[in-house]
Write a structure and sequence with these properties.
5 helices; mainly alpha; 193 residues; 82% helix
């Protein structure tokens, strides 16, 4: 095994840990939200605050450092489009984690302890976090596609498809955040059946 191959394996493993943990957590939160289990959903958001410095930051920093080492060791340069896209995606996700998810998870945990997880403000914040997390996952999956396909400026179709997917995810999340929570109306017993 060469040094480059070792770096590549470690880079891929760190990426799997980072993306896999985020994806699993998003699925758990989605399931709790769909079930209306606000306590379980709040617990998962508390877990984000705990996991961020212990799993998400180390995994994402490992992805970054190993990626830089791969460029330096391999036949790549930092001005290649696919590397620029990967770095932009990494930076977006990393900054969201540090500047949004971690402090918001801590804030939500504190608020839930004082008011309970069914508080309307907490539910609005949880909903916003969930939507931003889904956009972040789209960014990370697009980075994976970018890393595998390594687009250049000649791959207009691929670049446009990635941009459309990202814009659609961001637009849908932004519209949902602006729209606010959907209030379920319950028909009186015997009506609407």
């Amino acid at each position: 095994m060469t040094y480059y191959e070792l770096l590549l394996i470690l880079h891929i493993v760190a990426s799997i840990i980072w993306l896999g943990a985020g994806f699993m957590l998003a699925l758990l939160v989605f399931g709790a939200a769909r079930a209306g289990d606000h306590q379980r959903e709040a617990t998962y958001h508390e877990d984000v605050g705990w996991l961020t410095p212990r799993l998400f930051i180390p995994a994402s920093m490992s992805v970054f450092v190993l990626g830089v080492l791969l460029v330096l060791e391999g036949s790549w340069t930092f001005d290649q489009l696919w590397i620029v896209i990967a770095l932009a995606g990494w930076l977006t996700s990393f900054l969201l984690g540090i500047l949004f998810f971690k402090p918001e998870a801590e804030r939500l945990a504190e608020m839930a302890e004082q008011r309970g997880p069914t508080d309307p403000e907490i539910q609005a914040r949880v909903r916003r976090v969930n939507l931003v997390e889904r956009v972040q996952l789209v960014v990370l999956f697009l980075v994976v596609v970018d890393m595998v396909l390594k687009p250049t400026g000649d791959d207009a179709g691929l670049l446009i498809a990635g941009a459309v997917i990202l814009l659609a995810a961001t637009g849908i999340a932004s519209a949902a955040i602006r729209r606010g929570p959907v209030q379920a109306t319950v028909a009186p017993a015997g009506e609407g059946r």
